[in-house]
Amino acid sequence: MMPRVQPTLLPEALDGGELPPVLSRPRFHPERDPGDASWQSQFGGQEFGSESSLPDNIQCIYTFVADRGQRVKLEFTGFQLAGTADNCDMEYIDVYSELETPSDDLLSASLGGRYCGTVSPHVRISLHSVLVLVFHSRVGDRRTEKLFLEGHYQFINENRFIPGTRMPESAGKCAFLVEPKKKRHGSILSPTYPGTYPSNFHCIYLLKGNTGDRIRLFFRDFDIYFGGEHCPYDSVTIYDGHSTSDPILRKVCGLQQRLEMFSFGSNLLIEFNTTDPVKNDPRGFIIDYEFSDRFVDVKKLIRGQRGISHLRGSECDIRVLSNRESVHYIESPNYPGMYPPNTTCTYILDGLQGDQNLEKVILKFETIELVSHVEAESNSSLIKSDHHLASSSRAEFDECSHGSFVGVAVKPTSIGAVLSNAEESLYDATLCDRLPSNSPKFGPYTSQGPRIVIVFGSVDTAAADSSQADSSTALATKSRENGREVHGFRARVEFKTDFGVPGESMGDSNKCMFRFKNKLGSFNSPRYPANYPLDTNCTYFITGEPGDQILLYFVQFALFEENSKEECRDYLEIYDVLRDSKGVETYQLQAKHCWTVFPGPTISTFGAYEMKVVFSSDFFGTANGFNAFYEIRKAFREDVPSKEGSDPRHCGHLIESRDDVTTGYFTSPGFPVKYNKDQICDWEIHARPNHQVLLKLIGMEVEGEMTDIKTSCMNAVIRVHLDYGNRTNDLAICGTNPTVIAPIVSANNSIRISFLTAPEKVNGLNGFNFTWTEVRRVERDSECAGEENYLCSYTRLCIASGLRCNGDDNCGENDDTDEAHCNIAERVTDMRTIMVAATFSGFIFLFIFGFFCFLFKTKLERKRNKKESRKKRRKGLAGKSTGIGARASEHQHRVPSHQRQPYRSQKPSVQRHLQPRSDSQAAQGSPAVARSPPQDRRQIATNGDMRNQPNQAFFARPPNGLIASSTDGSPKQERIFFG
């Protein structure tokens, strides 16, 4: 039957201002027909393009009016308007779905949403019987795309939105009471599901069952606006009771699937609140409910035990919380009777966990009687069944893949997986069927932390219309026919203090006492790396075999720092366990470490193959504690090696003084080369009777740090045993500053020094160098008399006189008198040596100086003689007045001395003999004459004429420019010589 359309042309002013023209105002309502409660038809469908545009300003109102007891359902099939979802100024459609009558004022009504663009509204269902659409457009001929608006409307029955009896008006317009009088199961829908729910709306649904009933809720579909984890905007809140003052089971928003909840009692309250969230058209919810008395009786399951509580919202999940070292029992539902079918229960066993408490869980099953898959199938004639696990998607559990089971999760990873999704979990142990009494699956199971989780799942053996009694009786009857009765499980839960120490526990559970027998291992302070608890005492026994020694080293050590370094309320003590021939144990304290010292590596005393470590904390202050490793090794051949290299694993040696050897030194292996990891060295120095040993550290580069307050020698340590019988007085040394320890004088005639490095890794510095001296304490000077002794002035130590002036301070701390006088004598000797050296050097210098003076003098004399000989020759040449021929003849046989002419370049010196030439030869001239300038030629010609005069001698012009002249007073004649 189609609805009648009653169009009206009355304008509607919706946006204020000028009234836009109304294209049409159709009104849709069903014909009066009580036999037909649903109507469906189509609206819109007209398409406007650019050729047939709407007016510039137009408004259309579509009014849908359903009959009494009906709602309007609107669904858009085509939607294309101008604008975008964020900008609906020019064209849009408004939805009004909360109107009570067609005459309600739209201006004051609640707007259900404004839409434009291509995103259409979701399904809309009216809250009452009226729904109005308002279309507004100001686009006109500016439209670029086609306008299209089409949808379907339907008039539906509103009974689906009324789950029960309406409550009084004082409770609100949307308030219903749901009781199991007419039906024990049904559905609750949000007021306009699946349409967008109204904004700023409030609904309550009170589910009130019969005595003994419990209520189950199942969220079939749930879509509520998500505003955050705590649902501050829209939400559905479920209360475990009849009012909002009862405990909240859960507050839900967002998207939820297959969420299940159970009430603890027979009442449940659902509260639905909405605000005005961002437009996203959430569809609401549909929640299935069921009243039943066959759900697990939680009170019977708990049995009033202290510390066991029901986890609200679940059918049979319980939590067992320790009451400090308490014991509890857990059972399957209805134990010892038959457990209900299709049931999953989770048992969370929690020990104490806090600053002062940390417990572990010990679980042991006393009874396991479960229905197997075969037994369940054989019972098909009694009950309708589709056999599978309650969690059908769970991974296969070996032989427990089909049937009732008990899964145990002990490891933290397994526990996390089970609690996040029990249906897809793998357990650390799975139990099913009937176990023999000696089966290891009975346990005990010990937690790796403070928690164990158990999951019990039963087979779905009941038909949908079968009651709990029928199914339980049928299964129990069949089980009795097979010779035994199936009745679930029972287990014992014990909580013990967990100190977090990986060792064999000794004594009571509340005692922190452990034993270690493996060759390699570790132990730690309680709850490490968390802070150790206050007022705690722990004892650790490391036990080897005869012929063993125990190496102990620490990787972490942090005790509570006291106000003064003298205070030591939290401490760690290390004992050597010694046994005599009768097996009587003696504990010898090796070291006591407080907050001021980070212990270095240590080894048990020679002959002790067991160590005892004691940790103690007081009532005030805590810290991270310690973490130590140990190694049980074969003992060394000797306590101290008799000589170097006698034991490859044990360096060091025994040192004994003699009359001629009263001092010496020893160094770390390879000094000054870097030492290695895993080195143990021992030196023991023995002085003669009635003497002591003076020990002095000369150089040190050992990793670690020593300050005035703290000492940290984690990887390498030097220990000076002042008294090896009382090792609590040992000095631990490390770092790079040798002055941190003053020279040490032993109490008796022996002293022992040890050097240990960690076996794992060391940085490897250069090591150390010690000197030792045999000394003797005296009170009177007469006790150190004799030439063989020397008395130190300040320390009053008597040493051998041969140690004086040996370059080492052998008198002890702040006393260098054995070397002080030696310094004066050395200074005198040094001065004398310097003077001798200076004198010898002076003689050498004088000799070298005299030698060079002699050479210089000889050279000057030669030069002087040469100069005088030249002068004599020149004077001889100028003063002679003999005949020219004789002088010329003499000159012809003498080689003239040629020097560089200042106005000519130097030329090779060539000796020529002047001989008379013929006139023709003189006229022709030599090649030199031909090459010479005219003025020189005239000069040469003149000279040639003079050569032809036998009574006259001629001389070449000396290089210094002197001109030779005749002695007879004739005019001067120049002579030129060409070399």
From TrEMBL:
GO terms for cellular component: plasma membrane. The keyword Lyase does not apply. Residues 864-877 have a biased composition (Basic residues). CDD domains: CUB. Residues 1-52, 864-979 are annotated as: Disordered. Pfam families: CUB (PF00431). The chain crosses the membrane at residues 834-856. Residues 38-52, 898-909, 940-952 have a biased composition (Polar residues). Residues 51-156, 174-292, 316-496, 512-633, 651-775 form the CUB domain. Keywords: Disulfide bond, Membrane, Transmembrane, Transmembrane helix. This is CUB domain-containing protein. It comes from Ditylenchus destructor. The lineage of its organism: Eukaryota, Metazoa, Ecdysozoa, Nematoda, Chromadorea.
